[in-house]
């Protein structure tokens, strides 16, 4: 609707009239001086007032989802020792119907970045955490307002930081106005617009928090009390905290307790704690749907999102999600509520589903490090360095055979988006194009499959429903991709067709077959093929994320994405000790790239199968009972020195036949994604261009 703004009249008392908006239905005054006028305001109204900030006059504007404030200029008059405050020139602060343009010195705050709004009779009172919604309604009522201070707590990313542009910090700003009605009007309007913002409806009020006091530096409880709890209280989040005392306690609670009163699950710990939460939520969803936990027909999506607060040794999951392992940054993302889908990989042997992996599944060098380090837990985080050096000098190689479902190497059509999956390689950032396309295709695919399943169930006769239940679960998962492909492709445009065809063989809709392979009656779509690789390997790594950390900013898999439905299979051949040093140096620096090393192979796949050459296929080689236990309880038990162990999110899996499958955005996590690192440029050197994967990223450091 078209609207026009009248010029506000400034007064000498420091207050102004609110701007009037004219719509197709008529004109109305946004603020008429009465408390009842607040309820009539909408997000399309434009509020304009004079406030004092640190005893200086500011012109404050609330327009749409933006809060703008700018200091008023001082103009000298003829009489000596007297100045007059006047508003900024109209052309520097304008509001249009389609877009907004503000002055060069304006401070702009988006509603998505606001943590809380609180008013008080004094500045100290306005800095206190806001009351609950019920108490706020009782306090407001029809009583006369008295608060003259308005404090806005908001989050800000340190985009200008030369060391870490991904860190966020909490800031506050306090406005003063002598008219208490204006202060209450602004408070209500800000709260309403925050709630109506795109991420406002995703903010949590009830949170279940698990604290691991033994992980990392054993400072999980102190980290939560010092950095996280005050922020949750400021945002009005009701958090229920549980301090774990044993391994797998989180998983047991998530499987057995009622979680209907909680809106999200938060964990304070390392990568192993995060993996335990994800495993508990996924297996809980399986039980709710009546699926077989050992051989599920498909992998369901949990209903509760996951929040992660870093308190471990490396915290690779948090670092990959946010670009930093800063505790305040992770807590701020939980408060702001914005979520993204995160890929999760299932790990199974030739008999059953073992567990789910959130970060990396590695065999060889990293598996030896994980198993060896458990003997030196008394060393703290130094145990990984000691065990890593010890395993590095041993330079052992392991014979293995791998089968992987290779992605198509060439696009099906000219300028097809399938090139996103091949070349050029792109790094996952906030507003990642690759992950966004995968998310949209996942939603369309889920909608079509749900409609197809509903139609199939309606056709079944009541007397045949029980007999055909098991058959429907198996056949639907094997044939749905083929039967629905034509209907789905007809609803997608040409830009998305190639991407959809490459996702037809998604493991989330396939049952586990004997030997970890697909059924013999299933034909692979065009462009997909199995590839077999044999050799002697120093390291075999299936990376679900970049696995970055403070010591390895790019991680072991620099070009892995958070939500594209693929994993990177990294194979490091057994070579000389000097080549192993080259490999570690390339993973440690920002400029390194392991793909340039001749003895390293990187494959992008959705599923791979691993087996050893000489391992006998007997039940004694399976470690189903121990695969879900912490390292300390089963590390290296009964495993010959001829074979290595699997390091799955910090836990040891001793099975010798392993299948790893990626499930696209299986779980929602609180994050916005990392931002590109912009190294300070020398004078006269142009800034780096925005990466291909974040061409629409307005938060990128390169654009600041």
Automatic annotation (TrEMBL):
Protein name in the entry: DAGKc domain-containing protein
A cellular-component GO term for this protein: membrane
GO biological process: ceramide metabolic process
Molecular function terms from GO: ceramide kinase activity
Organism of provenance: Drosophila navojoa (Fruit fly)
UniProt xrefs under PANTHER family: CERAMIDE KINASE, ISOFORM A, SPHINGOSINE KINASE
Biased amino acid composition, Polar residues: 133-143
Domain DAGKc, chain residue ranges per copy: 202-351
Region (Disordered) location: 1-20, 121-143, 453-476
A Pfam family reported for this protein in Swiss-Prot or TrEMBL: CERK_C
Domain of life: Eukaryota
């Amino acid at each position: 609707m078209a609207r026009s703004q009248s010029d506000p009249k400034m007064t000498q008392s420091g207050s102004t009239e609110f701007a009037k908006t004219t719509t197709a239905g008529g004109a109305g005054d946004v603020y008429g001086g009465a408390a009842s006028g607040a309820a009539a305001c909408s997000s399309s109204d434009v509020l304009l007032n004079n406030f004092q900030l640190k005893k200086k006059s500011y012109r404050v504007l609330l327009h749409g989802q933006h809060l703008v404030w700018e200091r008023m200029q001082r103009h000298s008059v003829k009489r000596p020792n007297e100045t007059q405050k006047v508003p900024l020139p109209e052309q520097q602060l304008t509001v249009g119907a389609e877009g907004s343009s503000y002055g060069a010195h304006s401070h702009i705050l988006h509603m998505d970045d606001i943590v809380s709004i609180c008013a008080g009779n004094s500045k100290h009172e306005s800095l206190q955490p806001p009351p609950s919604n019920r108490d706020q309604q009782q306090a407001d009522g029809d009583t006369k307002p008295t608060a003259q201070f308005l404090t806005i707590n908001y989050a800000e990313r340190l985009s200008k930081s030369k060391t870490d542009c991904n860190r966020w910090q909490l800031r506050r700003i306090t406005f003063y106005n002598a008219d208490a009605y204006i202060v209450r009007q602004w408070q209500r309007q800000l709260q309403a617009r925050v709630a109506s913002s795109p991420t406002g409806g995703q903010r949590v009020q009830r949170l279940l928090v698990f604290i691991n006091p033994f992980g990392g530096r054993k400072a999980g409880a102190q980290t939560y009390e010092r950095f996280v709890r005050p922020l949750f209280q400021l945002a009005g989040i009701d958090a229920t905290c549980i301090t774990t005392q044993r391994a797998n306690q989180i998983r047991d609670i998530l499987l057995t307790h009622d979680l209907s009163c909680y809106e999200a699950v938060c964990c304070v710990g390392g990568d192993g704690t995060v993996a335990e939460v994800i495993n508990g939520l996924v297996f809980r969803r399986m039980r709710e749907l009546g699926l077989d936990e050992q051989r599920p027909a498909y992998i369901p999506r949990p209903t509760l999102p996951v929040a992660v607060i870093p308190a471990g040794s490396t915290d690779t999951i948090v670092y990959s999600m946010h670009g930093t392992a800063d505790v305040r940054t992770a807590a701020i993302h939980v408060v702001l509520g914005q979520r993204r889908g995160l890929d999760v990989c299932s790990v199974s042997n030739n008999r059953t589903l073992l567990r789910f992996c959130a970060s990396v599944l590695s065999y060889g060098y990293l598996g030896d490090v994980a198993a060896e380090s458990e003997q030196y837990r008394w060393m703290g985080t130094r145990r990984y360095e000691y065990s890593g050096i010890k395993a590095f000098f041993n330079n052992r190689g392991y014979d293995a055979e791998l089968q992987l479902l290779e992605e198509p190497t060439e696009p099906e059509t000219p300028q097809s988006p399938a090139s996103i999956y091949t070349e050029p390689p792109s790094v996952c950032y906030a507003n990642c194009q690759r992950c966004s396309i995968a998310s949209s295709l996942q939603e369309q695919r889920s909608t079509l499959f749900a409609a197809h399943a509903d139609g199939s169930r309606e056709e079944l006769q009541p007397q045949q429903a029980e007999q055909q239940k098991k058959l429907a679960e198996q056949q639907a998962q094997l044939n749905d991709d083929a039967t629905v492909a034509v209907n789905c492709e007809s609803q997608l445009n040409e830009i998305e067709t190639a991407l959809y065809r490459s996702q037809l063989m998604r493991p989330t809709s396939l049952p586990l077959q004997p030997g970890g392979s697909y059924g013999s009656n299933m034909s692979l779509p065009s462009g997909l093929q199995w590839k077999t690789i044999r050799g002697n390997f120093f390291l075999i790594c299936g990376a679900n994320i970049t696995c970055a950390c403070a010591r390895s900013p790019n991680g072991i898999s620099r070009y892995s994405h958070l939500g594209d439905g693929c994993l990177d299979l990294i194979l490091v051949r057994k070579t000389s000790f000097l080549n192993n040093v080259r490999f570690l140096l390339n993973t440690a620096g920002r400029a390194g790239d392991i793909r340039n090393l001749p003895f390293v192979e990187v494959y992008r796949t959705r599923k791979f199968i691993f087996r050893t050459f000489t391992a006998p296929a007997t039940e004694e080689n399976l470690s189903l009972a121990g695969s879900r236990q912490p390292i300390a309880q089963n590390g290296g038990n009964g495993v010959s020195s001829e074979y290595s162990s699997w390091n799955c999110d910090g836990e040891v899996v001793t099975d010798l036949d392993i299948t790893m499958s990626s499930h696209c955005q299986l779980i929602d996590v609180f994050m916005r994604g990392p931002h590109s690192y912009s190294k300070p440029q020398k004078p006269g050197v142009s800034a780096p261009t925005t990466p291909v994967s974040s061409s629409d990223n307005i938060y990128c450091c390169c654009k600041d």
